[in-house]
């Protein structure tokens, strides 16, 4: 498959659609009766700002070091791994400031998964975040990059997050793994991202692993530890998230 060379023009529109998808899905989530409307607003706002800031931060730091232009620093690349962690930490900080002890992660997992799924489609049409060369029949040629058939890793991520959204929506509707869904989603994505990095042309660092793989391994370890702590915690209301 050869992607038309005009598809990068759809990139801004797809990003807007990704944000709209997340907002629409969040509206459809059962409201948390333990939070006031104002508290819900601040938690959601913190999640958005924290995610957007953290997703851009690694590229901003690298760009400053390389002397890039201001426009490139503002509108350049983003990393989902950092964005997810940044959103999580921003919510935790906001809840601590507001004195909220209710866990809110379950209400975010489906909207976040849906938003990222559509966001990966924007990466696909924008011809970024592509994979290594492949001879598989579903390989995609991105003419704005080169004329080599590559793994459509953007579509692999689209499928992962779409499936995750469906699975976690079912789990939440049935009350399974209550107050643990967002952390499970983060761990699942870290495992997926660690594995899919072998299909991406990223620079290899120590032990032949990419920076994303090292980040995914560290983040997964932290959230697995938190899940284990949750299992040993008798009263979920006494812990955050």
**Major sheet size, sense and barrel closure:** 2 strands, antiparallel
- Strand elements, count: 2
In which order are the strands of the major sheet placed?
A: 1-2
Strand fraction equals under 5%
In N-to-C order, the SSE pattern is HHHHHEEHHH
Shape: globular
Report mean pLDDT, rounded to a whole number: 83
Number of domains: 1
Distance between the termini: 43 Å
Uncertain stretches: 63-75, 234-241
Helix content, binned percent: 55-70%
Assign the structural class, choosing from mainly alpha, mainly beta, alpha/beta, alpha+beta, or little secondary structure: mainly alpha
The DSSP helix count reads 8
Radius of gyration: 19 Å
Strand-helix topology:
Elements: H1 11-27, H2 37-66, H3 70-75, H4 80-98, H5 106-125, E1 140-141, E2 149-150, H6 153-173, H7 181-196, H8 211-232
Antiparallel strand pairs: 1-2
Helix pairs in contact: 1-5, 2-4, 5-6, 6-7, 7-8
Describe this structure in words.
By secondary structure, the chain is mainly alpha-helical. The chain has one domain (7-178). The chain is 63% helix and 2% strand. The protein has 8 helices and 2 strands; from the N terminus they run H-H-H-H-H-E-E-H-H-H. Strand 1 (140-141) and strand 2 form a beta hairpin. Helix 2 (37-66) crosses helix 4 and helix 5 packs antiparallel against helix 6 (153-173). The model is unreliable at 63-75 and 234-241 (pLDDT under 50).
């Amino acid at each position: 498959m050869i992607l038309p060379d005009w598809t990068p023009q759809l990139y801004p529109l797809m990003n807007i659609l990704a944000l709209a998808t997340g907002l629409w899905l969040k509206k459809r989530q059962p409201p948390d009766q333990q939070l006031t409307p104002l508290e819900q607003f601040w938690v959601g706002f913190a999640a958005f700002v924290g995610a957007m800031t953290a997703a851009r931060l690694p590229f901003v730091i690298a760009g400053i070091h390389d002397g890039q232009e201001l426009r490139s620093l503002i509108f350049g690349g983003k990393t989902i791994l950092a964005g997810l962690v940044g959103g999580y930490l921003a919510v935790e900080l906001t809840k601590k400031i507001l004195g909220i002890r209710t866990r809110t992660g379950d209400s975010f997992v489906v909207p976040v998964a849906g938003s990222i799924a559509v966001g990966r489609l924007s990466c696909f049409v924008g011809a970024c975040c592509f994979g290594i060369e492949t001879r598989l029949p579903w390989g995609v040629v991105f003419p704005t990059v080169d004329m080599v058939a590559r793994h459509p890793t953007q579509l692999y991520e689209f499928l992962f997050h779409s499936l995750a959204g469906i699975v976690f929506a079912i789990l939440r509707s049935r009350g399974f793994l209550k107050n643990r869904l967002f952390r499970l989603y983060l761990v699942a994505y870290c495992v997926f991202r660690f594995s899919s990095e072998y299909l991406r042309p990223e620079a290899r660092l120590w032990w032949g692993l990419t920076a994303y793989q090292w980040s995914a391994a560290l983040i997964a370890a932290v959230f697995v530890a938190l899940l284990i702590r949750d299992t040993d915690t008798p009263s979920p209301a006494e812990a955050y998230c």
